[in-house]
Amino acid sequence: MSRLRYTGIAVAALALGGAAAWTVVTTHDAPAPSFVTAPAAEQGALPAATPSGRRSDHTDRAGHRAVAPVPAAPATSPGTAAGRPRTHGTPAPFVQTFAAQPGRARIKPGKSPKTPVRVAPMVDGCDRNYGTKAQCVPINYPKGVTDRCAWLTAHGFTRVAVVGKDRQHLDPDHDKIACD
To answer: Transmembrane region positions (predicted)?
Structure first.
Protein backbone atom coordinates (compact mmCIF):
# COMPACT_ATOMS: atom_id res chain seq x y z
CA MET A 1 0.00 0.00 0.00
CA SER A 2 1.15 3.52 -0.68
CA ARG A 3 1.83 6.21 1.89
CA LEU A 4 -1.17 8.17 0.70
CA ARG A 5 -3.49 5.24 1.39
CA TYR A 6 -2.01 4.76 4.88
CA THR A 7 -2.48 8.48 5.55
CA GLY A 8 -6.10 8.32 4.38
CA ILE A 9 -6.83 5.36 6.63
CA ALA A 10 -5.22 7.12 9.62
CA VAL A 11 -7.24 10.31 9.01
CA ALA A 12 -10.48 8.31 8.69
CA ALA A 13 -9.73 6.45 11.93
CA LEU A 14 -9.06 9.72 13.76
CA ALA A 15 -12.29 11.22 12.43
CA LEU A 16 -14.33 8.21 13.54
CA GLY A 17 -12.66 8.19 16.96
CA GLY A 18 -13.30 11.91 17.39
CA ALA A 19 -16.94 11.56 16.37
CA ALA A 20 -17.41 8.73 18.85
CA ALA A 21 -16.04 10.91 21.67
CA TRP A 22 -18.78 13.51 21.21
CA THR A 23 -22.06 12.98 22.99
CA VAL A 24 -25.32 14.78 22.61
CA VAL A 25 -26.66 16.42 25.75
CA THR A 26 -30.10 17.99 25.70
CA THR A 27 -30.82 20.88 28.01
CA HIS A 28 -34.14 21.80 29.55
CA ASP A 29 -34.01 25.44 28.39
CA ALA A 30 -32.82 24.99 24.82
CA PRO A 31 -35.01 23.19 22.27
CA ALA A 32 -32.05 21.99 20.19
CA PRO A 33 -29.40 19.61 21.56
CA SER A 34 -25.94 21.00 22.26
CA PHE A 35 -22.75 19.04 21.71
CA VAL A 36 -20.15 18.66 24.43
CA THR A 37 -17.25 16.27 24.83
CA ALA A 38 -17.60 13.14 26.93
CA PRO A 39 -15.60 14.46 29.94
CA ALA A 40 -17.69 17.63 30.01
CA ALA A 41 -20.88 15.57 29.84
CA GLU A 42 -19.73 13.57 32.84
CA GLN A 43 -19.04 16.73 34.87
CA GLY A 44 -22.18 18.54 33.82
CA ALA A 45 -22.23 21.90 32.10
CA LEU A 46 -21.08 24.90 34.11
CA PRO A 47 -23.48 27.86 34.43
CA ALA A 48 -22.73 31.05 32.57
CA ALA A 49 -21.59 33.67 35.04
CA THR A 50 -22.09 37.40 34.90
CA PRO A 51 -19.70 39.99 36.35
CA SER A 52 -21.87 40.13 39.47
CA GLY A 53 -21.36 36.39 39.97
CA ARG A 54 -25.01 35.38 39.37
CA ARG A 55 -26.12 32.84 36.80
CA SER A 56 -27.51 34.35 33.62
CA ASP A 57 -30.00 32.69 31.27
CA HIS A 58 -30.12 35.66 28.88
CA THR A 59 -28.44 36.16 25.55
CA ASP A 60 -25.07 37.89 25.45
CA ARG A 61 -23.88 40.58 23.02
CA ALA A 62 -22.93 38.01 20.37
CA GLY A 63 -26.47 36.60 20.45
CA HIS A 64 -25.55 33.30 22.10
CA ARG A 65 -27.93 32.00 24.73
CA ALA A 66 -26.41 31.08 28.06
CA VAL A 67 -27.22 27.45 28.86
CA ALA A 68 -28.40 26.32 32.27
CA PRO A 69 -26.33 23.55 33.84
CA VAL A 70 -27.26 19.94 33.24
CA PRO A 71 -27.12 17.94 36.45
CA ALA A 72 -24.64 15.10 36.23
CA ALA A 73 -25.78 11.59 36.92
CA PRO A 74 -24.84 10.75 40.50
CA ALA A 75 -22.12 8.16 40.62
CA THR A 76 -23.01 6.32 43.79
CA SER A 77 -22.16 2.88 44.87
CA PRO A 78 -23.48 1.01 47.87
CA GLY A 79 -22.12 2.61 51.04
CA THR A 80 -20.96 5.96 49.50
CA ALA A 81 -22.70 9.29 49.58
CA ALA A 82 -23.46 11.22 46.42
CA GLY A 83 -21.00 14.11 45.97
CA ARG A 84 -21.36 17.35 44.08
CA PRO A 85 -19.19 17.85 41.02
CA ARG A 86 -16.26 20.13 41.78
CA THR A 87 -16.24 23.52 40.15
CA HIS A 88 -12.90 25.04 39.31
CA GLY A 89 -12.21 28.63 40.35
CA THR A 90 -10.07 31.19 38.58
CA PRO A 91 -6.38 30.47 39.09
CA ALA A 92 -4.15 33.04 40.75
CA PRO A 93 -2.14 35.22 38.35
CA PHE A 94 1.35 33.99 37.56
CA VAL A 95 3.96 36.56 38.61
CA GLN A 96 7.56 36.12 37.53
CA THR A 97 9.98 36.00 40.44
CA PHE A 98 12.64 38.09 38.72
CA ALA A 99 10.37 41.14 38.85
CA ALA A 100 10.44 41.22 42.65
CA GLN A 101 14.28 41.34 42.92
CA PRO A 102 14.43 39.99 46.46
CA GLY A 103 17.18 41.38 48.66
CA ARG A 104 17.51 44.66 46.79
CA ALA A 105 16.46 48.06 48.04
CA ARG A 106 14.06 49.96 45.83
CA ILE A 107 15.68 52.90 44.06
CA LYS A 108 13.81 56.17 44.43
CA PRO A 109 13.48 58.34 41.32
CA GLY A 110 15.81 61.32 41.09
CA LYS A 111 14.66 64.92 41.10
CA SER A 112 13.81 66.63 37.85
CA PRO A 113 16.27 69.30 36.73
CA LYS A 114 15.26 72.87 37.59
CA THR A 115 16.98 74.40 34.55
CA PRO A 116 16.73 73.20 30.97
CA VAL A 117 19.25 70.57 29.95
CA ARG A 118 21.80 71.96 27.52
CA VAL A 119 22.35 69.81 24.45
CA ALA A 120 24.94 70.53 21.79
CA PRO A 121 23.18 72.17 18.82
CA MET A 122 24.59 69.71 16.29
CA VAL A 123 24.34 66.50 18.32
CA ASP A 124 21.91 64.91 15.83
CA GLY A 125 23.99 65.67 12.73
CA CYS A 126 21.80 68.57 11.66
CA ASP A 127 22.95 72.15 11.28
CA ARG A 128 20.29 74.12 13.16
CA ASN A 129 21.53 77.41 11.70
CA TYR A 130 19.37 76.67 8.65
CA GLY A 131 15.62 76.14 8.28
CA THR A 132 13.01 75.43 10.94
CA LYS A 133 13.19 73.07 13.92
CA ALA A 134 11.60 70.33 11.80
CA GLN A 135 14.16 70.65 8.97
CA CYS A 136 17.51 68.90 9.09
CA VAL A 137 20.16 70.46 6.89
CA PRO A 138 23.04 67.99 7.26
CA ILE A 139 26.44 68.98 8.54
CA ASN A 140 28.20 66.23 6.61
CA TYR A 141 27.05 65.54 3.07
CA PRO A 142 27.44 62.18 1.32
CA LYS A 143 30.74 61.45 -0.40
CA GLY A 144 30.96 62.81 -3.91
CA VAL A 145 28.70 65.83 -3.30
CA THR A 146 30.48 68.89 -4.67
CA ASP A 147 27.55 71.34 -4.89
CA ARG A 148 25.71 71.44 -1.55
CA CYS A 149 22.93 73.70 -2.84
CA ALA A 150 22.17 71.30 -5.72
CA TRP A 151 22.01 68.39 -3.25
CA LEU A 152 19.65 70.32 -0.94
CA THR A 153 17.40 71.32 -3.86
CA ALA A 154 17.29 67.70 -5.09
CA HIS A 155 16.14 66.62 -1.62
CA GLY A 156 13.34 69.20 -1.29
CA PHE A 157 15.17 72.00 0.53
CA THR A 158 14.20 75.16 -1.35
CA ARG A 159 14.33 78.68 0.04
CA VAL A 160 15.79 77.55 3.38
CA ALA A 161 16.05 80.40 5.87
CA VAL A 162 19.37 81.17 7.54
CA VAL A 163 18.46 81.64 11.21
CA GLY A 164 21.97 81.70 12.70
CA LYS A 165 25.52 81.88 11.40
CA ASP A 166 26.13 80.82 7.79
CA ARG A 167 28.83 78.26 8.66
CA GLN A 168 28.40 76.27 5.44
CA HIS A 169 28.46 79.39 3.24
CA LEU A 170 25.13 78.56 1.61
CA ASP A 171 24.04 82.24 1.53
CA PRO A 172 26.63 84.11 -0.55
CA ASP A 173 24.46 87.25 -1.01
CA HIS A 174 23.63 87.46 2.75
CA ASP A 175 19.86 87.86 2.30
CA LYS A 176 19.11 85.20 4.98
CA ILE A 177 17.88 82.70 2.34
CA ALA A 178 20.21 79.77 1.61
CA CYS A 179 20.71 78.52 -1.95
CA ASP A 180 18.53 81.12 -3.70
So the answer is: none
